[in-house]
Amino acid sequence: MTDRQPYEGRFELALLDLMPRLTLWARQRTYTADAANDLLQETLLRALQGRDGFVEGTNLGAWLYMIMRNLAADEGRRRARRGPHLAIDDNASLLGEPPRQDHDLALRDLQRAFAELPAAQQELLLRIAAGGERYLDLAEAYGVAIGTVKSRVARARANLRRRLDPADGVDGGPCDEACGPDETPPASS
User: Fold this and answer.
1) In this structure, are 76 and 15 located in the same domain?
2) What domain range is 59 assigned to?
3) Apex CA 175: angle with CA 174 and CA 180, to 5°?
4) Global pTM value
5) Chain-centre distance of CA 26, in angstroms?
6) In terms of domains, do 136 and 175 share one?
7) pLDDT 10s per residue in the chain (189 long)?
8) What is the three-class DSSP state of 52?
């Protein structure tokens, strides 16, 4: 036991002197700075725990390099067994599908409110919003001024908005339930 006497702090000082080289070795064996720091920390921990296994007078750097190499090999085998590591924060979108129930409920409410609209307002909104027709073309088709078409569309939108949110207080105008003869859409051409 004479060749393995306590080093009285010299072992720790020698470890500190080798830190730059150990850091470089760790970075060469890993792909990220975090993994390199983990490997370096584990190497130093093992060296401190197994300091009685080091024989004074031998190459401390080579001994530490062997510890690091073995730890890196163990980690490589462990990674190969369990597959690639995916950070949850970086890959949250892969973990599932965003909730759709709010969207589905809103769409159901819109369909219900639209079905409650008078037929004239339904057709007008469909032709403007979904069909992409211009106000001028609709005014010509209905035989009315463009301002009349715009006001009818505004009333239809307000009526739909009121049906979607009764607390909103938007007045749908006089053409909520029944349109006069001048507001009935012409027959489809």
Assistant:
1) yes
2) 2-88
3) 110
4) 0.42
5) 32
6) yes
7) 445 455 457 888 888 899 999 998 898 888 788 989 999 999 999 999 998 888 888 899 999 999 999 999 998 888 888 877 666 666 666 667 777 788 888 889 999 998 999 988 888 888 888 888 899 988 998 899 999 999 999 999 999 999 988 775 544 444 444 444 344 444 444
8) helix
Amino acid (one-letter) located at 94 = L
Amino acid, single-letter form, for residue 60: L
Name 11's Cβ contacts closer than 8 Å, sequence gap at least 6: 51, 54
The DSSP output letter for 50 is: T
Together in a domain, 83 and 111:
no
C-alpha distance from residue 155 to each of 123, 171, 172 (Å): 13, 8, 5
Token pair for residue 94? 């892969």
CA distance 174 to 129: 21
Using H for helix, E for strand and C for coil, what is the string for 74-101?
A: HHHHHHHHHCCCCCCCCCHHHCCCCCCH
Domain-terminating residue out of 54, 88, 122: 88
Within 8 A by CB and 6+ apart from 179, the residues are: 118, 120, 121
C-alpha torsion sign, points 72, 73, 75, 76: positive
Four-CA torsion 178, 179, 180, 185, nearest 10 degrees: -140
Residue with tokens 């909520």: 176
